[in-house]
Specification:
Blueprint (H helix, E strand, L loop, with lengths): L2 H4 L1 H27 L11 H14 L6 H32 L1 H14 L4 H12 L3 H25 L3 H9 L5 H34 L8 H10 L3 H29 L7
Helix pairs in contact: 3-11, 4-5, 4-7, 4-9, 4-10, 6-7, 7-9, 9-10, 9-11, 10-11
Length: 264
């Protein structure tokens, strides 16, 4: 267990330092823009960004409200995440438990892992067209590798004495996999999901470049084309805020599903 997990006072101190850091950045931002040291075209003030947030929330931007853009992006990310989990967990289990599985899937995962989404985006568009499927597939590929690799690492790290104890009670094959290996690997799988969500949000903007009409990435790109910098910054902050909330949600899910993590 880490020192932060053991000491609540240290956790509160870390949170306080984070709050002070964010406040300091906002003050510097406000001071620089308030002194007119930077043209608003390049860096609008926090007040201007906040006002634009309220305006886009009420009236929308490029034929959709902020909530509609957000809903479109979340739908793509969660659809891609579901596909990545459905495919990535079995592949990770195969890599971690089978020599044949490792030989088949490990090279494929390692091939996909370092490739940036923009590299295979044109190929996905050629194969699947410019509809929603291609966007979800691009985001899903970015999410797939972290989940598969984390699952494989979790399966490999299962303590041998747990497997031996289960075998002593007659567990074999699928029973070992479902009742010992998979539950023991669950903390690492959830860590992979957290990493995958970050990769998915990073890929979102690239995916929404292709014939999208709604989405946070589409909104940011549209605003950038017309030099509407306050909308660009607002969109970036919304993506960061949603990513933070999703990260917090996965952490809460982790505490509920694997409360023993760090205590064994």
């Amino acid at each position: 267990m880490s020192a932060l997990q053991k000491n609540p006072l240290r956790r509160k101190s870390a949170a306080l330092v984070s709050a002070i850091t964010i406040t300091a950045v906002l003050i510097i931002w406000w001071a620089v823009t308030g002194m007119h040291g930077i043209d608003p075209l390049f860096l609008p003030s926090p007040g201007a960004v906040l006002a634009k947030f309220a305006e886009v929330w009420r009236e929308g931007y490029v034929d959709a409200t902020l909530l509609q853009h957000l809903a479109a992006s979340l739908l793509r990310v969660f659809a891609a995440l579901a596909a990545a989990i459905i495919l990535g967990v079995p592949v990770g289990l195969a890599i971690g438990t089978s020599t044949i599985g490792r030989g088949i899937f490990d090279p494929l995962v390692e091939f996909l892992r370092p490739i940036p989404p923009l590299a295979y985006l044109p190929l996905i568009v050629i194969w699947l067209g410019i509809g929603e499927t291609s966007k979800i597939v691009v985001i899903g590929i970015a999410m797939f590798s972290p989940i598969a690799i984390s699952t494989a690492a979790g399966v490999r790290s299962v303590a041998p004495n747990r497997i031996d104890a289960a075998r002593a009670f007659g567990a074999r094959g699928w029973q070992l996999l479902l009742h010992v290996r998979l539950p023991s690997a669950l903390p690492e799988i959830l860590t992979g999901v957290r990493i995958a969500l970050g990769a998915g949000w990073s890929t979102l903007v690239a995916a929404e470049l292709v014939a999208a009409t709604r989405g946070l990435g589409f909104m940011i790109q549209s605003a950038a084309q017309f030099l509407v910098t306050d909308v660009v910054i607002m969109g970036i902050l919304v993506i960061a805020g949603v990513a933070f909330l999703l990260e917090a949600g996965v952490r809460l899910l982790e505490r509920w599903l694997v409360p023993w993590r760090g205590k064994l």
